[in-house]
Write a structure and sequence with these properties.
Order of helices and strands: HHEEEEEHHHHH
Radius of gyration: 27 Å
Strand content: 5-15%
Helix content: 40-55%
Distance between the termini: 10 Å
Shape: rod-shaped
Largest sheet: 5 strands, antiparallel
Structural class: alpha+beta
Number of domains: 2
């Protein structure tokens, strides 16, 4: 059996780092570094502005950038990191503060729910602590996972193609499956380089064994 080292590396990356949601693939270099919470206060909801200021005191290295068209969300990021750390949130209906970050797993919701990556609190001090706990640097594994194709998806697609091809070849040869004595005999003949029937049957038989293996 030949080992594809490229696939092995991609599998290792896939297994060692959960690929971050695409919403966090925002490069810090594309954000407006000129945003000033005093001069540009009108761009942000007042309560969110106070929240961001509290986070800034807790995490002096973190900067903020506004969301286009949304006064209740702010990117928060480390300018020395390539991608954003997450989002500060404010729900003015329920008057609560939130954080959305790639490392959060809110088990109260399913992994596909919009709240799965969010934590909330009506107490701003508690919310600031939640932000601090989730303002974590990107890992090498996470960064590497963005530059390679998702190995599992690619592998699943490949296996589906192979299974479909095997099924078609079995049908052409009038066989019911690869777990039969007929297939075992056919395989032994192919391994012995035997001539099998007419050209069409011969080619299908050899292709079936090779594809299955």
């Amino acid at each position: 059996m030949t080992v594809d080292m490229g696939n092995a590396v991609r599998l290792s990356i896939y297994e060692s780092a959960r690929k971050p949601e695409q919403k966090f693939w925002v490069r810090t270099s594309t954000l407006d570094a000129r945003f000033d919470m005093r001069e540009d206060a009108s761009m942000v909801h007042p309560a969110l502005l106070v929240f961001a200021q509290a986070v800034g005191k807790k995490l002096p290295h973190v900067k903020f950038a506004p969301m286009v068209g949304d006064r209740c969300e702010l990117w928060f990021y480390d300018p020395h990191q390539p991608y954003v750390l997450g989002t500060l949130l404010y729900d003015y209906h329920l008057e609560k503060y939130g954080v959305e970050a790639r490392g959060i797993k809110n088990e109260r919701f399913s992994s596909t729910h919009s709240e799965y990556l969010r934590l909330w609190s009506t107490n701003m001090s508690t919310a600031v602590k939640k932000v601090a706990a989730n303002a974590v640097p990107w890992t090498i594994g996470e960064l590497a996972s963005l530059s390679v194709k998702d190995y599992k998806s690619a592998r699943d697609e490949e296996l589906e193609d192979v299974e479909s091809k095997v099924a078609n070849l079995l049908k052409n040869l009038g066989m019911t499956g690869v777990d039969t004595q007929v297939f075992s005999y056919l395989r032994s003949q192919v391994k012995g380089n035997a001539r099998l029937g007419d050209q069409g049957f011969h080619d299908d038989a050899y292709e079936l064994v090779q594809t299955h293996e």
